Amino acid sequence: MHTQEMIAAHPHVQGNVNEALLRCIDLCHDCAQACTACADACLGEKGVSELIQCIRLNLDCADLCNASAGIGSRRTGSNQEVMKRVLEACAEACRVCAEECGKHATRHNHCRICADACRACEDACTRAIGTIKVAMH
Amino acid sequence: MHTQEMIAAHPHVQGNVNEALLRCIDLCHDCAQACTACADACLGEKGVSELIQCIRLNLDCADLCNASAGIGSRRTGSNQEVMKRVLEACAEACRVCAEECGKHATRHNHCRICADACRACEDACTRAIGTIKVAMH
Amino acid sequence: MHTQEMIAAHPHVQGNVNEALLRCIDLCHDCAQACTACADACLGEKGVSELIQCIRLNLDCADLCNASAGIGSRRTGSNQEVMKRVLEACAEACRVCAEECGKHATRHNHCRICADACRACEDACTRAIGTIKVAMH
Amino acid sequence: MHTQEMIAAHPHVQGNVNEALLRCIDLCHDCAQACTACADACLGEKGVSELIQCIRLNLDCADLCNASAGIGSRRTGSNQEVMKRVLEACAEACRVCAEECGKHATRHNHCRICADACRACEDACTRAIGTIKVAMH
């Protein structure tokens, strides 16, 4: 990923990057891919009927990770409250998806790996949220 | 939009649709389109340099509306807390985007129309949130 | 949808809208919703194992409809060749999804409705493609 | 990115991964991020009015990279013709975006880095397309 270089090159950032937010963007991309692939791998399993809640949570999590990666990548102007809320929603989506994937981790490697990606992304979102200063309004 | 028909045909819904959530899905699609088009129209204006915060908020709002429309369209299994949080983030994105677009509404028709779409979507999100029951955890 | 109003208000369009492309944007939003909801409804069916190809095609089609709606909504500058190609990919995604959904239409209403939405979107994409002039390169 | 591990864990893949398509997924994520960030960095430049075509192409390219990453990540069932076409559209979006970003590369580091990300993604899409066997129809 060129995330670090790209954000550092922003005219308003000028090298003064928010490392926690950078890491969050990268892990949102990773988690979006993992959840998309896990939903599809679950769909390909013989026991798909036991994995439908897992697929549902995977798809929701991928949607939020994609939105968070986009919003987290913008530095022109300001939209702190929205960035905070989308990352909070994303952290929760990751948390519940990791929990569900964890239930199938011993039987399905894709669920085990996806649970790891979700937990890492949840953690990165939580750390990034801690760096966002929201103005009073 | 076939939203009403599609959700009513879901095996777990069986015609017992949540009207507020249906309306929210449709208005999220409408608002995503309006915000994408408003960002692009602002970019085409001679006075683009005065519209950069507007473009930023438009793009963030479109990302959240698209995620909300996807997540709001799922009825298999359950993901209530995540649905609630993404709609809250979406309502806030719509609120701040409508506020900013409103500042340019007398000069730019696209900002005026987009502000209307954002306010309608914010309202639909808020009403939909009111119908979501979140289990204790 | 505010699509007509939004595009007509673009500074470079000035009311001279491409009706076929407008219709295509709206039907892409409709088809994205239908495909997202059909994938989820299929997932909720007892006979989900017979619907896995349908879910796969639904998810791919939704991804392309969302991308097409975004790209089709931009009028600043020019990107005709890309717009043509994404609509061609989208038309093909709709065609194969309609064909697969059609196989399950008598048993599942969501597949019947989704097939209709896909066919309408395929047709709208094809008509829109016919209006795009691509410069030599 | 967990892409390699995730795809290898798919029940139909069983370790027999398509390396070119794996690489394409990762570079689509990288390019989506770079294009989103470049559009936003251009928007923050004083000379934004000279960068509006660049922003337009960046946003279109990000939309196609996101769609391609999603579609490229699925292995259940089959949708080869659609996968081929979306990667072709994506390669073209990357090509024209790299060309435009290249014009601003000496003045803006974000355009230089983004052009690199686009060229790498175009190359990865082209190589992946070469591995897709499309059935007659």
TrEMBL record, chains A, B, C, D:
Transmembrane regions listed in the UniProt entry: none
Matches recorded under InterPro entries: Csp_YhjQ, YHJQ-like
PANTHER family cross-referenced by the UniProt entry: CYTOPLASMIC PROTEIN (PTHR37310:SF1), CYTOPLASMIC PROTEIN-RELATED (PTHR37310)
Name of protein: Four-helix bundle copper-binding protein
